[in-house]
Each structure stands twice: as C-alpha cells, then as structure tokens.
Amino acid sequence: MIKIVAENYIKEEHQKEFLKLTKELIILSREEAGNISYHLYQDIQDPSHYTFVEEWQNQEAIDLHNQTKHFTTIVPQIKSFTSKPSRAVKYKEVQ
Amino acid sequence: MIKIVAENYIKEEHQKEFLKLTKELIILSREEAGNISYHLYQDIQDPSHYTFVEEWQNQEAIDLHNQTKHFTTIVPQIKSFTSKPSRAVKYKEVQ
C-alpha cells in the first residue's frame, strides 16, 4: 500500500469551483481498481489549505491513475486555482 | 472527526530509538477512547521524513491525548531527535 498526502492552497475566488471538480475527481478515483481510499480534508486553521489523503495498492495503480481522463483533465484545473506551490508526498506504512 | 497530519524529520542516528518510542506511543494512543486511528508512515523519497496520520473523535479527545503520560513523555523525546522543524496540521473532512 502507498499513501499519498497531496496539499493544495486554493484562492478564495476558486473554492466553489475547486470543490465541484474535486467531487468528480474523488468519485471517479474511488472507482479505480487500484484505489483503496481517496478523501479530501480542509485545514481547520487555514481554510484555503486542502489536502487529499489517498491510498493505492501499489505504484502501478498510481501510474494508471495519473493517466486517467479525470486526472489529466481535473488536476491541471486545480493547479490553476492555487495561490502557492502544491506539495505531494508518497509514503509507505511503518506501523 | 478531526484528522491530524504530523510530520517529523528524524536524524539517522536516532531512527532506531524513534521507531521504538513511536511503537509504544501508537499502541497506547490507539487504546484511548477518543482515538479512531493512529498510524505512522515513512516518506518513500526521504527516509528521514516520518508522518503520523491520526483520527480523533473531536477536539476534546485531542486535548485529553495531549495530557496523557505517553504523549507528555514520548513526544518531547521525539522532538529531540529531529533534524528540522516538525509540522502538524489539523483537518476536517470535506469529502
């Protein structure tokens, strides 16, 4: 299992559109065979700070996800809404 | 539910001790009534980068956790092992 924690800072004027697009992204990503879970969280202290926490079966599942239509069309739109650099970290479970 | 993502960068010479202490911290934290889940992950690209992903029922559960003996004794030791500033973010679930 690989866990991804992907952080984005969304400009206030784009938050509504961001939430609409992420809803679609999340529904379609959860339907992928290699996905274990896919959730979106909002920072309690900084409402512009949104973080995806995703679990994938393996790197192959992530590679396939990155090639899907929903990823290649929605993620660039999300990036265009950001106010500062995004950050994504891939993790393996320790305990 | 509140999700905490807490990142620590651990000096190489302290990794063994860090993993021993976190094992204890995780076991005892999972036993707390207000805890939903408590896991530790390691960055695949940077093995010194460890991140706790925790789920708590509410802020009261986090306040109680922060007062437990395992938290007040183990967390300062973990902080003494770090090579750069730690970071913790509290999130609410969006979708």
TrEMBL record, chains A, B:
On whether Oxidoreductase is a keyword of this UniProt record, the answer is: yes
Tell me which PROSITE patterns the record gives: ABM
User: InterPro entries recorded for this chain?
Assistant: ABM_dom (IPR007138), AI-2_Isomerase_LsrG (IPR050744), Dimeric_a/b-barrel (IPR011008)
Q: Which residue ranges does UniProt annotate as crossing the membrane?
A: none
Does the UniProt entry include the keyword NAD?
no
Q: Which domain of life is it from?
A: Bacteria
Q: Which PANTHER family match?
A: ABM DOMAIN-CONTAINING PROTEIN (PTHR33336:SF15), QUINOL MONOOXYGENASE YGIN-RELATED (PTHR33336)
Protein name listed in UniProt: Antibiotic biosynthesis monooxygenase
